[in-house]
């Protein structure tokens, strides 16, 4: 007997929409005649169709729902279909509305997103925007899986799914109090490690690069961490608070806030990093997303030109 079943695309779309919205209530508002009960029923049908009784969603209480591992795999499979179809039909209707989903790191959020979103809003005031701030690894994973439309973070060395629209180098500097006494001459990492350091959290690319470099030079045991933080702007405030010397990426908005502090180059040896605008090349980009890509790429390039050590 042939047990092959036709795919219940209505149920699949209902599940996908709930996953995008994060709750049954919000998804029901997106459908002209949708109800929470109807969406619940279709998702349960989908979970039971295979006979495996896979759970695709789990409850987060008042916060809505989140994907299980099986759910993430299904979303990754169908997202290019439904996401692109919704955007294409809206564009064919001449609509200047839609949703723009962005994932970025704390560095990108603080230094680049305010200008990018201000310029984008002026061009497309009716497009809603969702911004997720995550670690570099998570940002890339979200973009590769199609769960966001754009990623603004360090570009991976290799990705079969992501296209880089613009990329610029990020340099690193040490920030200390204005009256901090640095040793005369060229600074070495041994001298840097004599200072209590404010460093990025362990999951960040900068922290990983620092510890790999210190391990290669057999200096890792001398690292004294005064504080570890998620964002560079917080690191700067901790310098002002007397916690020590901060290792930070030197980006445009952050650079403007350092006029009362002492900024010096890091010694040689730390791997260079970059920040890039990326999108999943399997997804359709409507006009407003193409415009966002242009605005974001321009901001990334302009940011590099604006940065200069004070």
Notable traits:
single chain; 310 residues; alpha/beta; Arc Repressor Mutant, subunit A; D-Maltodextrin-Binding Protein, domain 2; nine-stranded mixed sheet; two-stranded antiparallel ribbon; 12 helices; 11 strands; 43% helix
Short description:
The protein has 310 residues and is an alpha/beta fold. Helix content is 43%, strand content 22%.
Question: Would you spell out the secondary-structure blueprint of this structure?
Answer:
Blueprint: H1 9-21, H2 24-30, H3 36-49, E1 57-59, E2 65-67, H4 69-92, E3 98-104, H5 106-111, H6 113-123, E4 127-133, H7 136-144, E5 150-153, E6 162-177, H8 189-192, E7 197-200, H9 205-216, E8 225-229, H10 232-240, E9 245-250, H11 252-256, E10 261-265, E11 273-280, H12 287-306
Parallel strand pairs: 3-4, 3-5, 7-8, 7-9
Antiparallel strand pairs: 1-2, 5-11, 6-9, 6-10, 6-11
Helix pairs in contact: 1-2, 1-3, 1-4, 6-12
